[in-house]
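# step 3/5: fold
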Amino acid sequence: MARVVVVSPPFHSHAQPMSVLAGSLARAGAEAYLACGRPFAPLARAAGARFVPLTVTRNANTGVARSTAQGDREAARLEEFLASTREGAVAALLAQSRHRREDMLSDPDLVLARMRALHERLAPDWYVVDQLSYPVTLALHCLGLPFATFCPGHPTYLPHGPEALFGVPYAWPSATRPGDDELAELRRAARATERAFTREFTRVARRHAPEREAPGRAFALASRRAVVFNYPPFPWLPERKGPGPRYVYGGHCVVREPYGPDGGWEDGWEKILGALRARARHVVLVALGTFLSARDDVLETVVRGILSEVPDAAVVVAAGDGVEALAHLAGPRVHIARTVPQRRLLGHVDAMVHHGGNNSFTECVASGVPALVLPFSSDQFSIAHDAERAQVGVCLDPVRLTGAGAGAAVRRLLRERPRGLGRWTAALSGRGPDWAARRLLRAMRERPDGTDPSRTPARSAGEHA
């Protein structure tokens, strides 16, 4: 039995799918652990995996970013980022580029020491590492320990070629594409950030593992054995050329969440949905993720637009810390909550409005729910582009959003089901975390030449699973 440690940063949007993958590895026969901050231990238990506490960054987000306890500098960067989202796509991406050093590569020496201690304690056969946990990947590289990479966002978070830059969308939805000058500025900033990261990677590696091959381009450092993408295998995604790891496109990390002993929901959501359905033909879920729920101005615009333009629809809103700010909207057709059981609700709603986060996007596609995508930052523009190209949703610019525009877009989704949704929901029905876990275990058993010592020769490395 392989012992595997799945290492996640302390962010709910990362720890949730990684805990699901850990549970799937356990069901596939591994002794699987989730290593993360202590507040995330319940995710491991719910998924059926073991838990080991591990801190790999000073940042944290246990479900609502603004209310998560963290340092003054981390809180200040969060507020600066949220302010930048009001200015537009490039402003938000530039703010993230400025913050990247402190957000993603703080204390690499301390993280290496913690990973060494964890390995001495548990002695796993191999690890699964969040691709955005750069100090963890660097530590495993320096320690010479085997690992697989889990990509929690758009596949282009792992650069596919020398021209690709982390932090620059590979493609843009039509509603948010910036001008050439803005794009050039963004590329310059991204290139400078990558150079700084690569210099720091090189310094750490020389200090701790001078005998090992240099890590090379920082944002491209990943497992040479296997990379799991929590994303559909869209045929237009940039091709990854040449020999390399096995690429596993798992499609999604959706699992059926537990219900009460009588078949109902113990937390009261069954009654909430029943009351909304009694007053409206359709129910729409509005959720902008654990960070962007702070944009209560956008949430209010969306809710007012739906109420005005879609009179036969009711709305469930994940408002985060904006519950009080949006309380005046609550009524017979509107339920405001701090957080919602999103994966469960997607089986009972007719459409969703989200920010283009990877979890929301893949969960909607897997559940067959059409979406209005409002991308603000990060990989959300690439995901919004894919949503449009796959014909599973539509995209609007949140900076220029109007209630009428949001309401009209939701009305179209409810009355004219996107043409590609059925195709891609069916395509993902055979994938998911259990499917990905089985292929990951197979890939990690293989020798570097792509053969399995316990089986007949496997497919060549680098092939898309």
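# step 4/5: annotate
The CA atoms of residues 97 and 190 lie 6 Å apart.
# step 5/5: archive (pending)
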